[in-house]
Amino acid sequence: MATVAVALTIGGWVAPKFLVPISAPYCDTKASRWREGIVSIKLRLSAGLLYLGALSAVLASSTQAANAYADEMRFQLDKIAATEEQTQPFRDLLAKYFSDRNNVLDRVRKKTHMAYAPCEPKKKCDQILAKRISRELRRVADQSVEAMSEVLMKDQLEHYEKFVEIANSQFMMRAGLK
User: Fold this and answer.
1) Which residues, 6 or more positions from 105, have their beta carbon under 8 angstroms from its beta carbon?
2) Residue 26: DSSP 8-state
3) pTM over 0.85, yes/no
4) 24, 32, 75, 154: which one has the fewest Cβ atoms less than 10 Å from its Cβ?
């Protein structure tokens, strides 16, 4: 029984060569090429499944992080416990905060003109953008807390500040800047 060494390439990474047994003596016939093709396809499929498994593990960990942010935000909202008189102004100001926060990327992009003036190295550009976006998020958060101070009491306001901080962290993570 002969063996054939098959190398497998996955996204630029070359897996070690596998020795694949071939039941008939190796010769260059149509049947042997057919067997080699089948073996190659099997190896590619198994490597592809391995790659998908690793990718799903990475995505699951990022989903777990997002769920942790959401759970912590819900906890802080429960701690705020707005009264009936506070509920409608609280909802309005919270909606305004989320609207302003979600528009931060567009505002920073318009202000910096980085799409028109490339800078090198790219990592430095990402750091500059991350710093500007986090600064803009802090400004939006400060404005929101200041507006909310007219609606909430002091102990409620502390939980709202934590809520806004967590929401900004979640936003930076989802934008790929943290």
Assistant:
1) 133, 175
2) P
3) no
4) 154
